[in-house]
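ARCHIVE CARD
CATEGORY: sequence design from structure
SOURCE FIELD: tokenized fold
FIELD CONTENT:
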């Protein structure tokens, strides 16, 4: 499995407030999500009106596909308008786990099943009076 990460440095020259900055960033984030299917978020320079850092991560079984997805994210972000992409950092790493971790056993007492079966041992003592008819 390959994990690709990207960080985009964005300059929003026409922004004169955080509200204007958020509008531009929302347009970029929405376009990337709609066209590439990848979520991208603001990861830095939160309080600066004319700059932002956007980050995203992708996972793929092939290194080339992870790089292709990151390239597509950059292309869509550049085409969204309202901002200039000033810097691009990207990296793809191979993720391998040598040890197999067993999954926890799920029994009848976990989850919401116990509540649905009419058992009330999960209810705090101070609420028990309210449960009595």
């Amino acid at each position: 499995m390959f994990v690709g990460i990207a960080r985009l440095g964005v300059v929003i020259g026409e922004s004169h407030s955080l509200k204007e900055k958020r509008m531009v960033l929302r347009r970029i984030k929405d376009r990337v999500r709609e066209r590439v299917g990848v979520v991208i978020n603001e990861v830095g320079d939160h309080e600066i009106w004319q700059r932002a850092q956007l980050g995203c991560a992708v996972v793929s079984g092939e290194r080339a596909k992870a790089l292709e997805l990151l390239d597509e994210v950059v292309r869509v972000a550049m085409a969204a308008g309202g901002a200039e992409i000033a810097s691009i950092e990207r990296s793809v790493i191979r993720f391998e786990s040598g040890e197999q971790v067993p999954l926890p056993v799920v029994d009848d007492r976990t989850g919401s099943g116990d509540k649905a079966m009419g058992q009330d041992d999960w209810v705090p003592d101070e609420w028990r009076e309210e449960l009595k008819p």
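CARD ANNOTATION: The CA atoms of residues 8 and 88 lie 5 Å apart. The longest helix spans residues 18-36.
SHELF: design records, drawer C
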